[in-house]
């Protein structure tokens, strides 16, 4: 069974996770699609809740078995992906998966599900604001912030590949705009 898919993507720090949490808290018909990742859990993250944490070997086995709807090496040596079984799990519950994924992964999901997906690109108001948001997290080194900003510049070049663009200058307004687009796409 293939249902609808909502994809929310953005450069790191633009607000896609905040918008996704808002939607998930408000609409029980939406379900968070848990991504697989080869990185270590951070802080209070839990396996099977925030991510399916796995070794590089496990991840590569799943690639060879064609278990992913999409996967990417997002940062050097760090792989992330959306498991086909995760999408099936959510659809079998009668819900719509909401994917909070990177830009390349979002493009791949759109290509596989062109008629079943709504893709929303969350745009930061400026690169300066994006840098400020990343710094305010307090979880990133200066080198990591520089890497994320370089990647963001590249990711912004794909903004026109998505169904909807939401500028997150004000989180409440960005949530409302995203919510309105999703209500046009799927019954909530």
Secondary-structure map:
Elements: E1 5-9, H1 16-26, E2 30-32, E3 35-37, E4 51-53, H2 56-64, E5 68-75, E6 78-83, H3 84-92, E7 96-101, H4 103-112, E8 117-123, H5 127-137, H6 142-156, E9 164-167, H7 171-185
Parallel strand pairs: 1-7, 1-8, 2-7, 3-4, 8-9
Antiparallel strand pairs: 3-6, 5-6
Helix pairs in contact: 1-7, 5-6
Largest sheet: 5 strands, parallel
Share in helix: 40-55%
What is the level-2 CATH architecture name? 3-Layer(aba) Sandwich
What's the helix-strand series?
EHEEEHEEHEHEHHEH
Annotation, overall tally of beta strands? 9
Q: How many domain modules?
A: 1
What structural category arises from helix and sheet content?
Answer: alpha/beta
Provide the residue-averaged pLDDT. Answer: 92
Question: In CATH, what is the class?
Answer: Alpha Beta
Structural description of this entry:
The protein is of the alpha/beta class and 188 residues long. It has a single domain, classed as 3-Layer(aba) Sandwich (Rossmann fold). It has helices at 16-26, 56-64, 84-92, 103-112, 127-137, 142-156, 171-185, and strands at residues 5-9, 30-32, 35-37, 51-53, 68-75, 78-83, 96-101, 117-123, 164-167. The strands form two sheets. It has a five-stranded parallel beta sheet, with helices on both faces. Strand 5 (68-75) and strand 6 form a beta hairpin. Helix 5 (127-137) runs antiparallel to helix 6. The protein is globular, with a radius of gyration of 16 Å.
